[in-house]
Amino acid sequence: MGLDQSGRYEEVAVYVSTCFGLEFGVGRTGEDPVSTYQLAISSDVDVFNYDGSEKEVDATRYVLLLLIKAAIKASPREQSLLY
Fold first, then answer.
1. Residue 51 lies in a domain
2. pLDDT tens, position by position, 69-78
3. Considering the entire predicted model, what is its pTM?
4. Bridge pairing between strands 22-27 and 2-3
């Protein structure tokens, strides 16, 4: 995991790691409560060779379940904040 140098995250330090064609970014703003972090997951669809037989997976729900099982308090972002 390393500090993002792409410039996608303005004025926020975000640490990113890539695995299996997915990029995971973890960061926090000065407005976030102490000990609160935001997680962003993005994919590079060019990495995958889709043939149409794939099943859709809700990665957000899956990652939240993994975090909760690891005793990390986690919740999805408010729908009104999604863009």
1. no
2. 998 888 877 6
3. 0.65
4. unpaired
